[in-house]
């Protein structure tokens, strides 16, 4: 089945193959992709489209002396198979050894852990600069495409590259797509270049001072070998603009490129996912419904996303329904946030959607453009919780400490369906604050809650004594569990608080707790450093109140098991009860 | 003297003037600029170059219904004079009422507080989007230039604008400069366009799908009126590329554009500053000397700056001396940081320099490209202290809470010359950590200090009892003062600690303090939320130790008096002594 692939322990084995064997290899690699992706899911379209180009790269260049940097690195699976990691694709028991992104811990052929977009050119420029300083001459190749080019950093990278005077190769994988359709004026230029086979004078790469070569047959091994041989050892920067087909080799993916950018485990015949999410309500559907209804009711409402409508599962037909009330800025969180500030300033009601891990790219725009100006932008972030995405480059656990310390920004941590819905309503219609809302990662639960938010106050859910539990957002249910365990273990009823506002300290309430409480416990599913709990510790610092903050460490966790991690950190209910025994 | 200018209470008064009067007005405005800038300093070159264009803008468009957004807004002084704020330029007692940046609190003609670069296009896109949603038709004009175009966000903005189908005008002020010389391939294209009077097919704006018009005479009122009349009420996005002379009207500034980008109070005849900084040592000269010597000694060392060599006063002749060991990425902090990560990965020794307020633009790149990969990049940040830049858009006080909570990043807060120099030495040569160093804002002082940093430990400077003071970075000297005051007031010697590592908690030392201390006091010149002190509060949260954190509030302070602010916050030594009396 994988006769040739299994002989590949590194690029040197690729170079030994005949053209026929390389073709067979490409078929085997697609089979291996199917094997992994049908069983555990992952990035589909980007990798199916890049098989031939990455074979050609390893055939022509000499990795790791020659150095490849893959943008986002979600299209590096073929490269990984060719650099001694085919087992992670063909042998089920080795799947989890392969991270799905480039990873220097896995292989000397990987130079960076990468998971955010538009960075490959500048990272590679750094490799090239160090090479020049050391007086070396290896090739440095930055791979970019699949929508990443519209990220400002990629364009800034082209600009910096335009001043280089040594070897630098930028491979632009033009598959006519981002995750969703591409957005922005530059993609018309790419189309011009494709239609003219690279001869159009309207050439964005040349306007940055870069040399340029076009290759139409990005899915043809011989063509790609020929073009790489042409540019290998070149003494100046050049863009290789190649045209590929995203999802090549699987008809459903070729037809519906957006749906097949990334896949869950699926049945190869039907294309249907083999995991069942049930039919019950979920927070993403709630968000979609809110958006569609709000847009219909209020013409000033607009959804803005940096190329991530999928973060809340907003499908093409829904986007079409939104018409001019939907803006995709391309992969530029900075543009999305800054534009939202302008919309709010001129009386519109902007809602920015993406994943928590990506919005930190707009840290400065949130601070300066939105919060200094105190413009009422609402940002709704998916995968904010610690049991969402667990790849080191996609963690949601830094969201709290990143954003709750920016003045004027109200960060809302809903604990149930009722809170989430009313927080959305309140946030989009009010004009006093910029707001960031964490989409809950828990299964939807229902509670009877207070739905006024103007006061920025915490809410007491259960008035008790001695111990007060401040249980934030997704950890509210753990707080409930802990409250019950305290009652069972110690025979008194503790106070349980839903802070709601991760960014604010309700000093009045904290003062009131002093009268009949000795211990305050905070629970949050973010890192403790710079997080919610530390604010509570500071408040009580010079007072007799004992405070214990439970949360995650300041660590780049990678592909962890959430339940195990909580236990390691001493955060299970029985573990906390033991600690309370010692404090009480 | 200011006969016409004094009649201008708003744009309606500009429109009444004849061409002759407009010319006289432009002369009066330059005189007014001289009046303010010779006395209190500010942005010189950008404003002297924009007088004519901004007169023409207000002559043709109808602000505030038509909306102008100025990039960085450091070139908006002429606009401010024409919108009822001429007193801030001609009457000394009104200088401080005018912020030097656009400011919605000052005038309905200003839409945003802006101070960071490359945001005008996206902010203005937001205004235009809200306009369209409301069914309105006003003109929206984004002004950009002076180097800001190389910022990724500006390029992403061009890309988003390329998809618009309604009125949008981008005025590109091409003065052939950034603060220093421009960098990047795109500036060659701008040169092509200037030389060809806009006819070159190598047109970066058109590659983003934008309509385009060139105007050579950016410093001529009639020409600019004509071009604005042509584009006013246009029904699609267009770039007006105008050529101006930076510093126009003052020969010294026309000749030496970099030095005259921004000025201190100066003598108009000689051009020399009228404030005296003394001849003693200072931290910027130390940094320059370190850079020049290190570069000579170590070919793998490279300085990378996002267009801010001036942040440490690195002059053109010094940059020339550094040759290929100096990289200016143009105004893109993202590119600079990400490139530095690549340099470090390939064995180089990168030092990134800029101001603290700007480096937060690369928050994501610091977290993902540098810290997840744990690449040994050194970042040296000027204006990190609370008595540096006090404009709301340029505050250094958020640096600590922004960066000390990122895993793997070591944030160093030196307290004296010896620490600063040895921290630089250690940081650049070690390969275990990414490091961010705060350049001290205090006058240089000398101390005998421990110069080993591998252990990431705090240092006890004075062993005492009962009260321990952790005095970070620039507040170390306040800690010394407080220690002395405690001895005088209470008759015992407290412990004084130089934490050195703002990002780390020295748990061993904190535990040792428990044996003979009751109170721990932390002092930091950053905001308390997410800052250094909160980590100490958390550590002692459930223990009997009383902790009091002193620092700034989570507030966007604007043009504050540092000494007054400290008093308001209860942070003077006598105020802290009073609080200790109550705790002890």
From TrEMBL, chains A, B:
Q: Which UniProt keywords apply?
A: Isoprene biosynthesis, Magnesium, Metal-binding, Thiamine biosynthesis, Thiamine pyrophosphate, Transferase
- What Gene3D superfamilies has UniProt attached to this entry? 3.40.50.920, 3.40.50.970
Associated pathway: Metabolic intermediate biosynthesis; 1-deoxy-D-xylulose 5-phosphate biosynthesis; 1-deoxy-D-xylulose 5-phosphate from D-glyceraldehyde 3-phosphate and pyruvate: step 1/1
Known partners and oligomeric status = Homodimer.
Q: Does the keyword field hold Metal-binding?
A: yes
What EC number(s) does this enzyme carry? 2.2.1.7
Indicate the family of this protein: Belongs to the transketolase family. DXPS subfamily.
Top-level taxon in the UniProt lineage: Bacteria
- The keyword Nucleotide-binding is assigned to this record: no
Q: Which organism is it from?
A: Absicoccus porci
Q: Where is the Transketolase-like pyrimidine-binding domain?
A: 281-445
Give the enzyme's main class according to its UniProt record, as a single word. Answer: transferase
Q: What GO molecular function terms would the record report? A: 1-deoxy-D-xylulose-5-phosphate synthase activity; metal ion binding
Checking Pfam families in the record gives: DXP_synthase_N (PF13292), Transket_pyr (PF02779), Transketolase_C (PF02780)
User: Which cofactors does this protein require?
Assistant: Mg(2+)
Q: Which lineage?
A: Bacteria, Bacillati, Bacillota, Erysipelotrichia, Erysipelotrichales
GO terms for CC?
Answer: cytosol
Q: What is this protein called?
A: 1-deoxy-D-xylulose-5-phosphate synthase
The UniProt entry's GO biological process terms, in alphabetical order, are: isopentenyl diphosphate biosynthetic process, methylerythritol 4-phosphate pathway; terpenoid biosynthetic process; thiamine biosynthetic process
């Amino acid at each position: 089945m994988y006769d040739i692939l299994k002989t590949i322990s590194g690029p040197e084995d690729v170079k030994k193959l005949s053209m026929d064997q390389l073709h067979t290899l490409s078929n085997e690699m697609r089979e291996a992709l199917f094997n992994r992706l049908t069983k555990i899911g992952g990035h589909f379209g980007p990798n199916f489209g890049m098989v031939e180009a990455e074979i050609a790269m390893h055939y022509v260049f000499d990795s790791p002396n020659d150095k490849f940097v893959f943008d986002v690195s979600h299209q590096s699976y073929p490269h990984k198979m060719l650099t001694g990691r085919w087992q992670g694709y063909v042998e089920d028991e080795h799947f989890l050894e392969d991270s799905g992104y480039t990873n220097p811990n896995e292989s000397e052929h990987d130079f960076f852990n990468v998971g955010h977009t538009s960075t490959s050119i500048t990272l590679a420029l750094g490799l090239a600069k160090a090479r020049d300083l050391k007086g070396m001459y290896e090739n440095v190749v930055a791979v970019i495409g699949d929508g990443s080019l519209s990220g400002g950093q990629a364009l800034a990278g082209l600009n910096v590259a335009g001043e280089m005077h040594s070897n630098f190769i930028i491979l632009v994988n033009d598959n006519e797509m981002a995750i969703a359709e591409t957005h922005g004026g530059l993609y018309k230029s790419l189309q011009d270049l494709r239609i003219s086979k690279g001869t159009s004078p309207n050439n964005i790469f040349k306007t940055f001072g870069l040399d340029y070569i076009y290759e139409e047959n990005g899915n043809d091994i011989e063509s790609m070998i020929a073009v790489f041989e042409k540019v290998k050892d070149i003494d100046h920067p050049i863009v290789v603009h190649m045209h590929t087909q995203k999802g090549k080799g699987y008809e459903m993916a070729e037809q519906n490129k957006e749906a097949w950018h990334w896949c869950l485990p699926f049945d190869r015949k039907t294309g249907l996912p083999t995991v069942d999410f049930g039919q019950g309500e979920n927070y993403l559907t709630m968000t979609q419904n809110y958006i569609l209804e709000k847009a219909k009711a209020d013409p000033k409402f607009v959804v803005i996303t940096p190329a991530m409508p999928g973060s809340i599962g907003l499908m093409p037909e829904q986007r079409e329904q939104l018409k001019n009330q939907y803006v995709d800025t391309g992969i530029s969180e900075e543009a999305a946030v800054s534009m939202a500030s302008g919309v709010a300033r001129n009386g519109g009601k902007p809602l920015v959607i993406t994943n928590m891990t990506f919005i930190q790219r707009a840290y400065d725009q949130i601070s300066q453009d939105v919060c200094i100006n105190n413009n009422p932008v609402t940002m709704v972030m998916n995968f904010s919780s610690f049991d969402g995405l667990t790849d080191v480059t996609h963690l949601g656990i830094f969201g709290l400490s990143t954003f709750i310390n920016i003045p004027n920004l109200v960060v809302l941590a809903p604990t149930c369906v009722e809170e989430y819905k009313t927080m959305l309503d309140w946030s989009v219609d009010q004009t006093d604050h910029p707001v960031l809302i964490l989409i809950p990662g828990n299964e939807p639960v229902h509670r009877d809650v207070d739905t006024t938010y103007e006061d920025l106050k915490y809410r007491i859910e259960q008035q008790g004594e001695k111990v007060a539990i401040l249980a934030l957002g997704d950890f509210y249910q753990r707080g409930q569990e802990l409250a019950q365990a305290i009652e069972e273990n110690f025979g008194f009823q503790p106070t349980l608080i839903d802070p709601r506002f991760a960014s604010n300290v309700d000093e009045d309430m904290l003062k009131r707790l002093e009268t009949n409480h000795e211990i305050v416990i905070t629970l949050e599913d973010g890192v403790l450093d710079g997080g919610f709990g530390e604010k509570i510790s500071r408040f009580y610092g010079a007072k007799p109140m004992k405070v214990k903050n439970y949360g995650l460490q300041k660590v780049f966790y990678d592909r962890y098991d959430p339940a195990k991690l909580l236990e390691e950190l001493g955060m299970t209910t029985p573990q906390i009860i033991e600690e309370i025994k010692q404090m009480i």
